[in-house]
Amino acid sequence: MSLDGFVAPGSPDELMGPQWRELQAWVFPQRFFRENLHFGEGGEEGLDNDILRQTFERTGVSVMGKRMFDAGEQAWPEDAPFHTPVFVVTHEKRDPWERAGGTTFHFVTDGIEAALDRAREAAGDRDVRIAGGGTTILQYVNAGLVDEFSIAVSPMLFGSGIRLFDGVDASRVALEQIRSESSPRVTHLTYAVRPR
Description:
Low-confidence stretches: none
Order of helices and strands: EHHHEHEEEHEHEEEE
Radius of gyration: 16 Å
Structural class: alpha/beta
Strand order of the largest sheet: 4-5-3-2-6
Strand content: 25-35%
């Protein structure tokens, strides 16, 4: 998330574009990220790398919205970066899409709760990660279906786009800070979500 609260540009044409790449710039040089996406060996190690690796290792399933999937479908390599089942919340019926490396995209047309139920079943004792985009994350937060969330705050200003918490039901959602860790590139914040 940018310092001014944005997680993506407003236009789908700009997703994965220069501004988004600047927002995510802290991820690309990390050793775990480079090796996970087969970009080559080497890379930075330290706090950011450790957090990426730990997040990946504890995630059993990801859930995302159609907008994020549409952008990624064009940009992700054949060996998509998830290596788990991914449930896409959408209105579009589509057969599962299997990719190299253990990622299979399943398309769920009967709402966020149905996608979460399927994801929990598939995850076993590992975490279900609501990967994005911002609108999908917000739907899960407002429905009381998020136990914990982590945000990497990038030291940049986006100016406009999709704000992560635009429309949050603050009368129902309370937060308890669990962790705050900073590196020279990004600040990692983790919160437990409680009913208000």
